[in-house]
Write a structure and sequence with these properties.
The complex is a heterotrimer of chains A (about 325), B (about 350) and C (about 500). Chain A contains 14 helices and 2 strands; from the N terminus they run αααααααββααααααα. Chain A is mostly helical and about 325 residues long. Chain A has one domain: ABC transporter involved in vitamin B12 uptake, BtuC (Orthogonal Bundle), CATH 1.10.3470. The radius of gyration of chain C is 25 Å and the shape is globular. About 0% of the residues of chain C have low confidence. Classes of the chains: A mainly alpha (about 325), B mainly alpha (about 350), C alpha/beta (about 500).
Chain lengths: ~325, ~350, ~500
């Protein structure tokens, strides 16, 4: 019996390695799709799919950006706060000019990411600690900027709305953005020096440094990318909601980390892919949608979400090859 | 021989830092308002310190063994609710009638307390099993459990609050005050804190915890069952979250699971300010207590300054970043003296 | 010691077998230790030494075989059992909790308590001090382990093992990171323990040390016993031991007999009065093309720090450093690498490799531009081919370029590190302890590699605590002591022998 278990596990490890860990993500997604097909066929209605993926796309975008940071061995729990801050900064500017506001949003994202990255690389404070701190700083700053008004940006702003609510060839633009970014990042990871540097840094930053990798620069750039994507997600989210509040980014840090982890990213760094994150995003969205349609209510879905995350990570843990 | 110079000098600065911060806070508070030291205000500070502190100690213990627990906030809020519905179910089954009528709870207080502690500890046990036995990274496991518990809380209460005013004896822990000023829950907190400080510094408990967190591999090579000790910390953390839940319920005389707490982040922040390291094995509970007091005072002073909660968030965040950097600087200096190149 | 005890062997292991993942490591080993005896176990990496000892320490379980301790059959299921039997083990890497104090580490898991149940710190401190006196070592036992130096850590680990008054003490490569003086000190302590009747198992790669201190030598090869030597029967000779380890009849002739071409004309590296306070002082020399310079000196004499300063890990404070005529003051390894300098440090697992990544990734990380195709992007096929090319060139034993380096043996891991830098094709190669923790066969292969490399217009600077290694490979040797360059000995110099170099080192 013991041998059987060992060989199954060995098999899983081999397949997992060959597919760069995507095997588990695919498996879970497939299971969900099958369950939907049998019990909740409504999921597959085009209108539903369109809505679902549009609504959850911002979460996916944040997750894609965060994946880069996690791959370098760090973490950023301030992404939600960055979202909130980005929109808060743009609040006043929207009145003058929408393109300027959009530029400001992106700049805030890049700037906060840069700040996070700089602090972490220069002070050597562990990123979890530091980003817990910057979360409060960014959230507080955002609220101060808009004097804690509950809702702002309630007027119609054309570009934002058209992008957030529009579709190209039937595919919602936010989803397209997410897909494009994911593919772009995956490409960078696989085919460029920068990508290889990210993986090496995440696996052993000391060895990376001694091999000539500028680990500070790698990390800072990843943080900036993560910040930028969080800002873009905030833009699309506000566009869809038609407004923005100081609670905008709440919970997105946890959601993004959950999605990344569902997709096979290891919190230790150096392991995982952005395509996996994309799969994780689809899986997460699908699950939430299934539960919503089946009328399980948000609360049950929250519970099941938690259970699923733990289960998936457990499975990933089994497939990791370990030295005895 | 120690290779460090000025070893003792640096330690003294660090020790004083938190005291200094507390003193500063008290002074500024007094300057800002003559009512700062009024009985009412002190009670508020002590109550906040008790809540923050209990959770901070829970989190600190888990951090010391190089793990993390993100469930303590939600556990504190939800376990009393679950306890009450559990009591309800049991009473129904044994034909004793309902204990929840129209949102008002009539079950005996001691039963509620017992079940709250039980459920919270159980949540801790689930964490323990997931992290140690199933090898799921603590960060992920406790996020997952956090989600699950949140969901269960809503399902059971259907989002409606429970009112405790009809329960006899409910107000004691949270409401009663010694000398009219010091809340009983603060005394409770001090007792809990003193107990754990003693355990950590003067008994084998401390040895096990610090070695498990400092170098798990070395500790297990010595024959220490590091898995057991990690599980133990998660369970204790759950229990302390339960105690905090009891205090909440007692003070607010109601239970409302829709209140998003974020308390685990505050607990983490306090642990960080108090010098606990996220990698485990480093840090002192005494400082956690001081840091809790500091945060409570800070929050009070900021309120007094007319800072609304979001301003407080901002300032608190700044302090966290500041303290984290200060703690790291002294460690970096030590590494530099040992000629270890940090990367 | 009672007469009765003298007739019983302290330890007898019979027919031990153990395998991992279906691969047999121990294939039926018999091993014995007597009271008051120092026995060495020697063998190539992967021969099974550590596995055998870990079984004794209760860390591994044997698949089959019997263990008799003091005449009684025992079953060692976990470290606690081993401790109860009074088998003490001192591991290669000091297994201490750095965040705790010396005396806390010594008493970890067997803390002394007062009658009330509190920890009795005072007595623990007193007893720890007593143990340190017994071992003849000065240390502040109240200090945190993270603040003491490496030798102290090794001795604290020994003190810890000694606390339970062991009858059998296993020392697993404890001298790996120590310099000669420290090793001498350690040997005094070990000999003292032998006098007290302890049985000691000494595992080491350093045959010199084994010959010096051991009574018996037990040679393992490929999981079986290749032979034993007994000092009481015949004098221990290094050549014999090495032959048995490698299984070859003829021991290859010393490299020092080998002819070596002199260095080229061009100067690669030029050091003028390089100084860093507390580490090294006023170091000046030149590195030419086609030469290998050896740095001879004890550990801690500043050599590693000197190399770090050239490579950009540390900075030098005074003096001048020129690479191909231009000033170099590297702020990080990246700078040095751009100037075609590379360094292989002495800690391959922490600094040379990303253990969970495949060989491919480790080999190409410094030279990503070499595996890109015309589109400017990384070409997977090129990556694989390059890796395979180097695996063959360096004879790395592996299942393929995608095998994670953590599964390779020490020697093969070191080869991957070397491959990484060979691919980079730097002009100057700095190496700190090229063959640390590597068995003889791999050592030879690495020597050959380096000698071949230097002929490609490269300059190599090697540091090794083993003088013989330097004599094998180098055109000339610089003797460094206390951070200063004391002497330069070229190959033609009559002092270019082990005796000669050592004498120079110790005459200052």
């Amino acid at each position: 019996m013991d041998k059987k278990v060992k060989s199954i596990r060995g098999f899983m490890q081999e397949v997992s390695e060959k597919t760069h860990g995507l095997f588990i993500s695919f498996l879970i997604l497939a299971v969900l799709l099958i369950i939907s097909a049998i019990f909740i066929p409504k999921v597959f209605q085009l209108k539903n799919l369109e809505n679902l993926l549009r609504t959850y796309a911002p979460g996916g975008i944040v997750a894609v950006g965060l994946s880069l940071v996690i791959l370098t061995g760090e973490i950023d729990v301030s992404v939600g706060a960055i979202m909130t801050l980005a929109m808060a900064v743009a609040a006043k500017i929207y009145d003058f000019s929408e393109p300027a506001a959009i530029a400001a949003i992106c700049a805030t994202g890049i700037g906060t990411g840069f700040l996070n990255g700089l602090l972490i690389t220069k002070t050597k404070v562990p990123s979890l600690m530091l980003t817990i701190g910057t979360t409060s700083v960014f959230n507080g700053l955002a609220a101060i900027l808009v004097k804690a008004q509950k809702k702002y940006i309630t007027d119609i702003y054309e570009i934002t709305l058209s992008v957030a609510k529009g579709s190209i060839l039937g595919i919602p633009i936010p989803l397209l953005v997410c897909l494009v970014l994911a593919i772009l990042f995956q490409f960078i990871l696989r085919k460029t020096s920068f990508g290889k540097h990210i993986y090496y840094t995440g696996t052993n930053k000391r060895a990376a440094w001694m091999s000539g990798v500028n680990i500070d620069r790698v990390k800072i750039i990843c943080f900036m990318a993560s910040g930028l994507l969080a800002a873009v997600a905030a833009l699309l989210l506000s566009g869809q909601l038609g407004s923005s509040t100081v609670q905008l980014g709440t919970g997105y840090d946890v959601t993004a980390i959950s999605i990344a982890v569902l997709g096979g990213i290891s919190l230790k760094g150096g392991k995982g892919t952005v395509i996996g994150t994309l799969l994780g995003f689809i899986t997460m969205s699908l699950m939430q949608n299934m539960l919503a349609i089946a009328q399980f209510g948000t609360y049950v879905s929250t519970t099941l979400k938690g259970v699923m995350i733990v289960l998936v990570v457990y499975l990933y843990g089994l497939t990791a090859k370990r030295k005895e | 021989m120690s290779i460090l110079k000025n070893n003792k000098y640096k330690n003294i600065i660090r020790k004083q830092m938190l005291w200094l911060a507390i003193m500063l806070g008290l002074i500024i508070g007094r300057i800002l308002s003559p009512y700062f030291f009024a009985g009412n205000n002190i009670t508020v500070i002590l109550y906040t310190c008790a809540i923050y502190g209990m959770l901070a100690i829970a989190e600190s213990l888990v951090l010391l063994v190089a793990e993390i627990d993100l469930t303590i906030g939600i556990s504190a809020v939800v376990s009393p609710a679950l306890a009450i519905y559990l009591t309800n179910a049991i009473y129904k089954v044994s034909n004793n009638g309902e204990v929840v009528r129209g949102g008002y709870v009539t079950a005996p207080w001691w039963v509620i307390v017992a079940f709250t502690l039980l459920i919270a500890t159980l949540i801790g046990l689930v964490n323990a099993i997931l992290v140690v036995k199933c090898r799921v990274p603590a960060f992920v496991a406790t996020i997952g459990v956090q989600y699950a518990v949140t969901g269960i809380g809503y399902i059971v209460t259907k989002g409606t609050p429970l009112f405790m005013t009809k329960v006899q004896g409910v107000a004691f822990i949270g409401g009663a005050k010694l000398a009219g000023v010091i809340p009983v829950c603060f005394i409770l907190f001090l007792l809990v804190a003193i107990m754990f400080i003693y355990l950590c510094s003067s008994t084998k408990f401390g040895m096990r915890v610090y070695s498990t967190g400092g170098n798990t591999k070395s500790a297990s090579l010595c024959g220490i069952n590091t898995g057991k000790w990690k599980m133990f910390m998660f369970i204790i953390s759950g229990l302390l979250a339960g105690i905090t839940g009891v205090v909440f319920t007692s003070k607010l005389q109601s239970i409302d699971v829709t209140q998003t707490t974020g308390y685990e982040m505050t607990a983490l922040a306090i642990a960080i300010v108090g010098g606990i390291e996220l990698n485990g094995g480093v840090g002192n509970l005494k400082n956690t207590v001081k840091a809790s007091m500091f945060m409570a005072i800070l929050s009070n002073v900021l309120s007094m300054l007319g800072f609304l909660s979001y301003h407080q968030t901002f300032v608190t965040g700044l302090f966290i970043v500041l303290f984290a950097i200060i703690h790291k600087k002294s460690d970096s200096k030590r590494l530099k003296e040992l000629n270890i190149v940090e990367v | 010691m009672s007469a009765e005890k003298r007739n019983v062997k302290l330890l007898a292991m019979k027919n031990m077998r153990k395998g991992f993942n279906g691969v047999p490591v121990l294939k039926g080993i018999d091993f014995e230790v007597n009271y008051g005896e120092i026995d060495a176990i020697i063998g190539s990496n992967g021969a099974g030494k550590s596995t055998l000892m870990n079984i004794l320490a209760g860390i591994y379980h044997a698949d089959s075989g019997e263990i008799f301790f003091e005449g009684n059959k025992v079953s060692i299921n976990d470290p606690n059992v081993a401790e109860r039997l009074r088998i003490g083990m001192v591991h290669q890497e000091p297994t201490l909790c750095e965040n705790m104090r010396v005396y806390e580490n010594i008493f970890l898991n067997r803390e002394l308590r007062t009658k009330l149940g509190r920890l009795d710190r005072q007595t623990m401190i007193k007893e720890s001090n007593k143990m340190m006196d017994y071992l003849g070592f000065q240390i502040d036992v109240a200090e945190k382990v993270q603040n003491i130096n490496l030798v102290s850590k090794v001795i604290v680990t020994i003190a810890k093992a000694m606390m339970m008054n062991p009858k059998l003490l296993i020392l697993d490569e404890v001298t790996a990171a120590l310099n000669q003086k420290e090793v001498e000190h350690l040997f005094q302590i070990i000999l003292g323990l032998r006098e007290k009747g302890l049985g000691i198992v000494f595992i080491s790669h350093k045959i010199r040390e084994i010959v010096q201190i051991c009574d018996k030598v037990f040679v393992l090869r490929d999981g079986v016993e290749a032979g034993t030597f007994d000092k009481t029967r015949e004098a221990l000779k290094e050549k014999d031991i090495i032959n048995l380890m490698l299984g070859e009849k003829e021991w290859k002739s010393e490299y020092s007999e080998r002819e070596m071409a002199s260095h080229g004309e061009k100067i690669l590296l030029c050091l003028k009065g390089l100084t860093r306070h507390g580490m090294y002082e006023d170091i000046s020399f030149e590195l030419y093309e086609n030469e290998i310079i050896g740095l001879a000196g004890l550990k801690g004499s500043g050599v590693t720090e000197l190399m770090y300063s050239i490579f950009g890990i540390m900075k030098y404070e005074q003096g001048e450093l020129l690479m191909k005529g231009e000033v170099l003051k590297a702020q990080s390894p990246e700078d040095a690498i751009k100037r075609k300098i590379c360094m292989i440090t002495n800690d391959r697992q922490k600094e040379g490799l990303a253990m969970e990544l495949p060989i491919e990734n480790n080999v190409m990380v410094t030279s990503l531009d070499k595996v890109k195709d015309k589109t400017g992007f990384i070409n997977g096929r090129l990556v694989k081919e390059t890796a395979v090319e180097y695996i063959e060139k360096l004879q790395v034993k592996t299942t393929g370029p995608r095998q994670q380096v953590q599964f390779l043996s020490g020697g093969n891991q070191q080869k991957v590190v070397i491959a990484k830098w060979l691919l980079r094709d730097s002009s100057v190669i700095l190496i700190d302890e090229p063959t640390r923790g590597i068995d003889i066969k791999a050592k030879n292969e690495i020597y050959n590699l380096l000698i071949k490399e230097k002929t490609k217009k490269k300059g190599i600077i090697v540091y090794s605590p083993e003088t013989r290694e330097l004599l094998n490979m180098c055109n000339r040797i610089l003797v460094i002591d206390g951070g200063k360059k004391i002497a330069e000995v070229s190959r033609e110099d009559p002092n270019f022998t082990e005796k000669g170099i050592l004498e120079i080192m110790h005459s200052y």
